[in-house]
Amino acid sequence: MRVAVTGTPGTGKTTATDLLASRLDDDDALPDLEVIHLNEVLDREGLYTEIDADRDSKVADLDALADWLDGRDDAVIDSHLAHHFAADRVVVLRCRPDVLEERLRDRGESGAKARENAESEALDVILAEAVEEHGLESVYEIDTTDRDPETVADELAAVVAGDREPSAGTVDFVGYLE
Ligand SMILES: Nc1ncnc2c1ncn2[C@@H]1O[C@H](COP(=O)(O)OP(=O)(O)OP(=O)(O)O)[C@@H](O)[C@H]1O
C-alpha cells in the first residue's frame, strides 16, 4: 500500500512522517511501510529540471520522480508534491493560514514566502489538487493547527491502519488571512 502525505509547506509533513516511521517500526499491527521524504530523494538523485533562483527552489522532475518511485509500492511518501503520484490513500495536512505563516517565519522562511504559502493554504490549493487527482474517496484531511506532532503522527497511523474514513473538505480556513 502507498500512502501519500502532502500539504502546503509548513503543515508538518516531515515532522509527522518522521514520528510515523517509529510507529511503523514498533507496531506489528501496522503494515511494514517505508517512509520516503521525496525532497531528500530529489536532492540526492538530482531529480529536478532546473533551479528557480527567484524562489530559491529546485523545479522537480515529476516524471523522473515517478520512475524512481516505480516498484516502491509499500511506502509512505512525504512531500508537498506527493499527491501527484500514484497512491492508495492521500493525507493532506492542513494548518490555519495565520499559524502556518508564523511557523514558516519561525523556521527562517522569508516573509514573502511564508505569506505566499499561507495564501495557498487559505485557498485549499493542495486539497483541491489531491481530490482532482485521486477522488474524494481516497483523500483524508488532518488539521495540524492545534495538534502536536505526536498527535498528528497518531492520526497518520490511524489512516494507514484503515481506522479513518476519507475526510476531504472538513477543513475551512476562509477568513483566516486578512
Ligand atoms: N504539529 C505541529 N505543531 C506545531 N508546529 C509544528 C507541527 N509540525 C511541525 N511543526 C513545525 O512547523 C515547521 C514546519 O514543519 P515541517 O518541516 O515538518 O513541515 P513540512 O510540511 O514538512 O514543510 P516542507 O514541505 O517545507 O518540508 C517546523 O518548524 C516544525 O517544527
UniProtKB/TrEMBL annotation:
<keyword id="KW-0067">ATP-binding</keyword>
<keyword id="KW-0698">rRNA processing</keyword>
<keyword id="KW-0418">Kinase</keyword>
<feature type="binding site">
    <location>
        <position position="12"/>
    </location>
    <ligand>
        <name>ATP</name>
    </ligand>
</feature>
<comment type="subunit">
    <text>Interacts with uS11. Not a structural component of 40S pre-ribosomes, but transiently interacts with them by binding to uS11.</text>
</comment>
<feature type="binding site">
    <location>
        <position position="13"/>
    </location>
    <ligand>
        <name>ATP</name>
    </ligand>
</feature>
<dbReference type="Pfam" id="PF13238">
    <property type="entry name" value="AAA_18"/>
</dbReference>
<comment type="function">
    <text>Broad-specificity nucleoside monophosphate (NMP) kinase that catalyzes the reversible transfer of the terminal phosphate group between nucleoside triphosphates and monophosphates. Has also ATPase activity. Involved in the late maturation steps of the 30S ribosomal particles, specifically 16S rRNA maturation. While NMP activity is not required for ribosome maturation, ATPase activity is. Associates transiently with small ribosomal subunit protein uS11. ATP hydrolysis breaks the interaction with uS11.</text>
</comment>
<protein>
    <recommendedName>
        <fullName>Putative adenylate kinase</fullName>
        <ecNumber>2.7.4.3</ecNumber>
    </recommendedName>
</protein>
<keyword id="KW-0808">Transferase</keyword>
<dbReference type="InterPro" id="IPR020618">
    <property type="entry name" value="Adenyl_kinase_AK6"/>
</dbReference>
<comment type="similarity">
    <text>Belongs to the adenylate kinase family. AK6 subfamily.</text>
</comment>
<feature type="binding site">
    <location>
        <position position="14"/>
    </location>
    <ligand>
        <name>ATP</name>
    </ligand>
</feature>
<feature type="binding site">
    <location>
        <position position="10"/>
    </location>
    <ligand>
        <name>ATP</name>
    </ligand>
</feature>
<feature type="region of interest" description="LID">
    <location>
        <begin position="106"/>
        <end position="116"/>
    </location>
</feature>
<feature type="binding site">
    <location>
        <position position="107"/>
    </location>
    <ligand>
        <name>ATP</name>
    </ligand>
</feature>
<keyword id="KW-0547">Nucleotide-binding</keyword>
<dbReference type="InterPro" id="IPR027417">
    <property type="entry name" value="P-loop_NTPase"/>
</dbReference>
<keyword id="KW-0690">Ribosome biogenesis</keyword>
<dbReference type="GO" id="GO:0005524">
    <property type="term" value="F:ATP binding"/>
</dbReference>
<dbReference type="GO" id="GO:0006364">
    <property type="term" value="P:rRNA processing"/>
</dbReference>
<dbReference type="GO" id="GO:0004017">
    <property type="term" value="F:AMP kinase activity"/>
</dbReference>
<feature type="binding site">
    <location>
        <position position="15"/>
    </location>
    <ligand>
        <name>ATP</name>
    </ligand>
</feature>
<dbReference type="GO" id="GO:0042274">
    <property type="term" value="P:ribosomal small subunit biogenesis"/>
</dbReference>
